[in-house]
């Protein structure tokens, strides 16, 4: 009898986990509108690159084509130089992505963290 109750608790815990998992899959960023468009990406550590977004996943891993890296000043790693180098097709690891910016401009969106009172 005790094992049956434990089984029910496990079921309920799994059900709660499913709801949590569904919420986790939902992403705040919708990068689909930037597919096949030029974007600029800033990485942890100061590197910057620009390229055409070919693909992405929920962890923010990015695939960029025709990628150009903007080289940095050796004395100040956060200062960019005018020099660039072509990288071609690259995969950017999502954990190092700090900022994604479309090259053709931006649009304002409402803050998704503020609850709307109505």
TrEMBL record:
GO terms for biological process: mRNA splicing, via spliceosome; nuclear-transcribed mRNA catabolic process. One of its GO terms (molecular function) is RNA binding. It holds the Pfam family LSM. Residues 1-24 are annotated as: Disordered. One of its GO terms (cellular component) is U6 snRNP. Its main location: nucleus. Signal peptide: none annotated. Residues 1-11 have a biased composition (Basic and acidic residues). Keywords: Acetylation, mRNA processing, mRNA splicing, Nucleus, Ribonucleoprotein, RNA-binding, Spliceosome. It is found in: Nucleus. The keyword Mitochondrion does not apply. Residues 26-106 form the Sm domain. Belongs to the snRNP Sm proteins family. PANTHER family: SMALL NUCLEAR RIBONUCLEOPROTEIN, U6 SNRNA-ASSOCIATED SM-LIKE PROTEIN LSM7. Component of the precatalytic spliceosome (spliceosome B complex). Component of the U4/U6-U5 tri-snRNP complex, a building block of the precatalytic spliceosome (spliceosome B complex). The U4/U6-U5 tri-snRNP complex is composed of the U4, U6 and U5 snRNAs and at least PRPF3, PRPF4, PRPF6, PRPF8, PRPF31, SNRNP200, TXNL4A, SNRNP40, SNRPB, SNRPD1, SNRPD2, SNRPD3, SNRPE, SNRPF, SNRPG, DDX23, CD2BP2, PPIH, SNU13, EFTUD2, SART1 and USP39, plus LSM2, LSM3, LSM4, LSM5, LSM6, LSM7 and LSM8. This is U6 snRNA-associated Sm-like protein LSm7.
């Amino acid at each position: 009898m005790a094992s049956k109750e434990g089984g029910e608790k496990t079921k309920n815990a799994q059900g709660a986990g499913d709801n949590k998992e569904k919420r986790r899959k939902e992403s705040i960023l919708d990068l689909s509108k930037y597919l096949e468009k030029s974007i600029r990406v800033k990485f942890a550590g100061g590197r910057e690159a620009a390229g055409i977004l070919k693909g992405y996943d929920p962890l923010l891993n990015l695939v960029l084509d025709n990628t150009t890296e903007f080289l940095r000043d050796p004395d100040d790693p956060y200062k960019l130089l005018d020099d660039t180098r072509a990288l071609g097709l690259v995969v950017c690891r999502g954990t190092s992505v700090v900022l994604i910016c479309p090259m053709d401009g931006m649009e304002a969106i409402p803050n998704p963290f503020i609850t709307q009172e109505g």
